Amino acid sequence: MMKAQKEKQTAAGPGKGGAKKADSGMGNVQDARREMTKTKEQREEEKKISLSIRIKPLELDGMDSDGLKAKASELWEVIVKLETEKYDLEERQKRQDYDLKELKERQRQQNKQKAIKLGLDPEALTGKYPPKIRMYSKYERRTDTRTYDDRRKLYEGGWDVLCAELLEKTWKEKMDDWTKRPKTKLPKWFGERPGKKAGEPESPDDEDEGPAEAPAGAEEEEEEEEEEEEEEE
Fold first, then answer.
1. Which run of H or E residues covers position 140?
2. pLDDT tens digit sequence for 28-40
């Protein structure tokens, strides 16, 4: 089976390497699904085939002492190479674990600062507490799938809108009554317009109505003054 796969890869040629790299993400997913659907017997068979390819049989028949020494030195070099690769992979894994730990701690600190800015508990966004489940209502045991706009429009209207409309209507009625009120003229004192400044021309109302009459109280005071003068003479 492995030989057949190798033959297919060699037959595909280097020209399709770019397409393979582009589809590597989906290819990994498909390989994982294919591995999950395999039976136990298929896995055992593939394991035997891979081991037979990697572990080559030792052909020691007919070898003299020099040949055995050369074979031993070759196997030793293979062991050293594998141990070196193993060490490199272990160190790489340790470094990646350390980087992931640092990134998680940095993300945790950022979430803490974000929660403090929002006025929440510092551990609210770090996954310490379970996420809040919004229910449709306290009388129904089902989650709320409505959007924010739908929930906001649900509470629009009501007494606030009716009260605002009533106040607006009352203000318009009062304003209409005020604009339609009869405009009365101000009273005159001794033939002069109230608020008149020196040098201003006479108003047309004063010319039409003529000189204003002095009040009765002023005439009585003048008569009393004349009588007092006569008595003194």
1. strand 140-143
2. 788 878 888 888 8
Report the 10 Å Cβ neighbour count for 228.
9
Of 31, 64, 67, 68, nearest to 46 by C-alpha is 31
As a whole number of angstroms, the distance between CA 108 and CA 125 comes to 8
Task: Say whether pLDDT at 9 is over 70.
Answer: no
Query: Would you state the pLDDT for residue 148?
Result: 79
The answer to whether the CB of 129 falls within 8 A of the CB of 123 is yes
Helix (H, G, I), strand (E, B) or coil at 192: strand
**What span, in angstroms and rounded, lies between the C-alpha atoms of 191 and 189?**
5
Mean pLDDT of the chain: 77
- Report CA-CA distances (Å) from 91 to 78, 79, 98, 99, 179: 20, 18, 11, 12, 90
Q: In the structure, how many helices (H) and strands (E) does the chain have?
A: 9, 2
**CA-CA-CA-CA torsion sign (15, 18, 19, 23):** positive
Rounded Cα distance, 132 and 146, in Å: 15
Confidence of residue 192 (pLDDT cuts 50, 70, 90): low
Q: Could you give the 3-state DSSP secondary structure of residue 198?
A: coil
| Residue bearing tokens 């070196």 | 84
**Tokens matching residue 233:** 């003479």
Give the list of residues 6+ apart from residue 141 with CB closer than 8 angstroms, or none.
Answer: 135
Report yes or no: 121 and 115 within 8 Å, Cβ to Cβ.
Answer: yes
Nearest 5°: the CA angle 54, 57, 58 is: 130
Give the pLDDT band (50/70/90) at residue 61: confident
